[in-house]
Amino acid sequence: MTDSASRTPVPADGQPHALPADNPFAAPSPLPYGLPPFDVIRPEHMAPALEAGMAEQRAQWEAVATDPAPPSFANTVEALERSGALLDRTRAVVSALSSAHATPEVRAVDEQFASRLSEHHDALVLDARLWQRLRTVHAARGTAGLAPEQHRLVERYHLDFERAGAGLEEASKQRLRALNTELATLAQRFKTLVQDASNDAAVHVTDEARLAGLGEAGRASARLAARERGLDGWLLTLVLPTPQPALAVLEDRGLRRELLEAATGRGLSGDTDTRPVLTRMAALRAERAALLGADSHARHVLADQTAGSPEAVEQVLLGMTGPAARNAAAEAAELEAAMAAAGAEGPLEAWDHAFWTERVRRERFRVDADDLRPYLELDRVLRDGVLRAATDLYGVRFTERPDLPGYHPDVRVFEVHDTDGSGLGLFVCDWFARDTKRGGAWMTTFVDQSDLLGERPVVTVCLNVPRPPDGQPALLSPGEVDTAFHEFGHALHGLFSAVTYPRFSGTSVPRDFVEFPSQVNEMWAWHPEVLPHYAVHHETGEPLPADLVARLQNALGYGEGFRTTEYLAATVLDLAWHSLPAGEQVAAADVERFEADVLARYGLDVPSVPPRYRSTYFAHVFAGGYSAGYYGYIWSEVLDAELVDWFGENGGLVRALGDRFREELLSRGGSVDPMAAFESLRGRPPAPEPLLRRRGLLPAA
To answer: At 210, phi and psi to the nearest 5?
Structure first.
């Protein structure tokens, strides 16, 4: 396997950079597929490697900018694609660990370099010499004899530079650099504050009677979490979204309230108050958008997505908010009636919703989430569910590699072999929650597939499953099973990438398209051809009873009004924050009022249904890459629902369909127009009816 990083790092002064040979980042990893050598990487290696990596890449950019030869695809665009190998492999590790294992030492490096890496990127996209060379190559692209992927790469580079401000006057560039630097620092600060706030807000319980309803596995995990913090009793740690899993089972209404208020109160007070950070970010993003010629950050972002404009997004949202809120209100009325019938104290509050939904679901469909857990053991779900479904559909096989190191003892590594037995890449998984790990679930890459650089993918998936005590199995909730399949859909997008240029690898597609493959993969979680293989009682070996499976299928759709409303509420908050025009800033003290006004404007102010994310812990948009893009989940779900129908119409879990999906869409990354690829596969443009039908939002006939 070749790797352009084998070149000696050379800084801008032309002298070899003094990165010690014993720094594990100094040379390409000797491990299979370039897996980082985590057994020897230490935090003290990271800062010097980032320094050397930036110096190397700036020297490479300078060589392109000063090349006396006429600008061409090879000496300009492809040369830029080849640059930065040392920085890429170092940055991939630092970025991953800053989310998955953010020790104080890793945090310090991440915070130290957040703004500097932004400045480093600006040194590329705001270099007038490089911009002029790109313009020349772009102007000649039609007559240069370029292959289709090369032609698309030229257009993509030109657009990236243009959207980043390459054509601005120098004074505007200076302001843009300052904005980008401050925004990078603030995003890092927001991420740190949310993680600290979530850790601090964990609910400590000393009276076991208050845990009535929480199953044995849940209690064991809570006891272990308390012990790890040196506490007696039990600790209910928080997941990132507003809904907390324990809310569905805790019988103590006061504890439910305490838990939900801990979740929704994150970022509202003390040293972890995120409001000054998020309001400043919204204002700076609006100013930057104006500098780049857009009336809002949302308009600037959406111009480069499949949606195209805020108006297009709002049209879709408005078509769903009314029906979703009405469904949520009807569900709430039903839950209140159930409370009254049971003689429970009312009225229905936000902390009651999950508990009474589960109670009604159990009575109506005779399905209890805790009854399912013994059949959903983590390792079985992984091997005989998630991975087996991929084998059945795509022919790929997975072999665990305990000989390969992870960045934490929890981490597991699997080698992936293609249908012909050749090595495809590595799948790295990290399932359990811990204090050094941010909440939520995500996929990322350590190595991106690229024929140009001779690299095959190394992808990782992180979840936050509560850790069971030693010797006990990790038993999943149905929602955690869905999440495992979802995130593995992202992993497949990365693993199946078959592009030449790293700019197009894997999930390098528009943000409002990236969730589509992952949502498609969720369809296999409860599919009758997949479920029997993994849904087996972890003690008795008995399969999940067939009648329970049928009831589960009927029950899964219950509560759709709540789920749609909480998601849409978060989506409109994201859109509202990023539709603010330049010069209009919300005061930190007014964040909650701003939220209330937005929700009321869209008719999503349902008292018992708080947004899936409040602004103060909305890490997707203030610390991740989803600003003005959280709508992408529902946007992608339109495509997902269409493809679920396509699989169903053509035979379901069939290799021929998997091969087509892989070849025509998953493998192409950003090298083709993703919507054109979708329409080619489906045979027509997407229609909203399959999604509306799935979510129960079609009007009654």
So the answer is: -70, -15
